[in-house]
């Protein structure tokens, strides 16, 4: 098992890794809409936050030797299902023809009170 760390995504804020590689799989921890340089939540709605979350995931995956095009499974956590359409639009634009398996759930609260968090599993 190998851990992944990159400055292209926010540093872990707890006792976990940005991602772990085992075998030919990369397991990415959940990313929220933090700017990796300022450490602040990006301004904007769920769509803007989703863009930042996916950029953070992309940076982690690239550091691991993979990419968003190799993602096989995501879990999306939404503060409100009212944000589903906005998140889904950005998600669809970002993943394009790659359509990983996905679960989307509404949760009562997310770190830093963000609107969206996404984790991913990808192939190397």
Give the DSSP E fraction (strand runs of 2 or more residues). Answer: 25-35%
Domain module count: 1
What is the overall silhouette?
A: globular
Using the CA coordinates, give the radius of gyration: 13 Å
Quick check: average pLDDT? 97
CATH class, named Alpha Beta
CATH-assigned fold name: 60s Ribosomal Protein L30, Chain: A
Q: Can you count the beta strands?
A: 6
CATH superfamily grouping: RutC-like
Unreliable segments (pLDDT under 50, ≥5 consecutive)? Answer: none
Q: Report the sheet with the most strands, covering strand number, pairing sense and barrel closure.
A: 6 strands, mixed
Classification by helices and strands? alpha+beta
Put simply, the count of helices is 2
Task: Give a verbal description of the structure.
With 124 residues, the chain is α+β, with helices and mostly antiparallel strands. It has a single domain (2-123), classed as 60s Ribosomal Protein L30, Chain: A (2-Layer Sandwich), CATH 3.30.1330. The chain has helices at 46-64, 84-95, and strands at residues 2-4, 19-22, 25-31, 71-78, 101-106, 116-123. Helix 1 (46-64) packs parallel to helix 2 (84-95).
